[in-house]
Amino acid sequence: MTTVAPEREREQKAWYWYDWANSAFVTTTAAVLFSPYLTSVAEKAACGRATDEDAGYKCTTDLHVLGIGVSAGSLVFYVVTISTILSAFVLPVVGAVADRSGNKPKLLGGFAWAGSAMAMLMFLVAGSNWQLGAVLLLLATLFLGASLVVYDSLLVDIADPDDRDRVSSRGWALGYLGGGLLLALNFVLLTVLSDHTELAVRISLLSAGVWWAVFTVIPVRGIRARPPVNPDAEPGGLVQASFGQLWHTLKDLRNYPVTLTFLVAYLFYNDGIQTVIYAASVYGEKQLGFEKSTVLLAFLVVQFVGIAGALGFGRLARRRGAYRVILTGLFIWLLVVVAGWLTPDENLPLFLLLAVAIGVVLGGTQALSRSFYSQLIPRGREAEYFSLYQACERGTSWVGTLIFGLVHQWTDSYRPALLALVVLFVLGIGLLLRVDPRRGIQEAGNPLPTVV
């Protein structure tokens, strides 16, 4: 068991709370309620009614965005795709600024509170006003990504190499607990206000933004500011120098081929994971025919099983190494996607069984990917390297969402769209098998942990 100094342990506990804070938005808003809600709002705008479930009626009218026809059912996935394309330009600059900043916790708070404000404003999305919902989702996703760049980079400051799998896994576990508790409260709200579902959803969206904002105070106040570690001496002011540092890092990345290979592997397999998370609520409601409350119940199962999954994967990594455990988790993800494709309509037991399987592997694969990547990056450039990592992290995948949206638009069905995600997991596993963990850690100039 690793001995942790009291001051560092206090910082680690404060750090965990940002997983608790942002998971409210990730779970209640991004994963469960807002995607199907915004889809219904878009369908109402396109078809003149909230749903297309009336007997004998199938709406095929598209929304028109800049003169282009867009399927209402694909809108959310295109918005996430656009946000990720933007993040490819924005987040690396955020990372460069963070690495040169002497107060990362304050920077974390700024991005988090801006994102939570966008989340709270989602309460105003009603009727057929899909445009407001699309803009708020875009901005909230960008601010979330920016805050996570800073947050993930702090892991290197507060935990030694042998301790990062444990710390990262505990953060994810607390995130699942926090997200699950708020989701449970919103489940009760949706049940009580079953005759006013739209209002209940809007209140739930507001609660997620408030939760995110309030609990962000703990890590901002509990983690001490540290001076930059060996920042590149780029000329100009902060932003100009940050662009220079970014360009230098992108050129320098070729000196770390194992890191680059892992990053590309993560791009693919995490795109698959993120798209499953984004698509699950829409798939459950629109394809399998479950009520909103049933889908919410399934996500509650994911949240609370995910606590045990994240902690269990963390313990397993101490014995087997994070790399091997991540690979095992990805093979389970492949089985989950295929099983989801085969699940019959309105088959609740199978749907809940899928939720259990997702909960087991979701937090574990993501928490260990974060801690494993932290071993592969050079000291002093954590935020900038994590900005590249974060571009394919929670809520910012684009390959998978684009595939899902296009396949749905072409086939008018979510089943083939879900099955198409198998390609992303296969590519991610294939690339991950080419990663040599020991070589990658040594190339980055970091000490080898006890178990690699």
Features:
17 helices; 452 residues; Growth Hormone, Chain: A; mainly alpha
The percent range for strand residues is under 5%
Identify low-pLDDT runs.
50-58
Count of folded domains: 1
Instruction: State the share of residues found in helices, binned by percent.
Output: over 70%
Architecture, CATH level 2? Answer: Up-down Bundle
* Global shape: globular
Number of β-strand runs: 2
Query: Main beta sheet: strand number and arrangement?
Result: 2 strands, antiparallel
Mean pLDDT: 86
CATH class: Mainly Alpha
Enumerate the strands of the largest sheet in spatial order, edge to edge or round the barrel.
Answer: 1-2
| CATH topology (fold) name | Growth Hormone, Chain: A
Transmembrane segments: 75-95, 107-126, 132-151, 172-193, 199-218, 260-283, 295-314, 321-342, 348-368, 388-407, 413-433
Subcellular location: Cell membrane
Protein name: MFS transporter
Keywords: Membrane, Transmembrane, Transmembrane helix, Transport
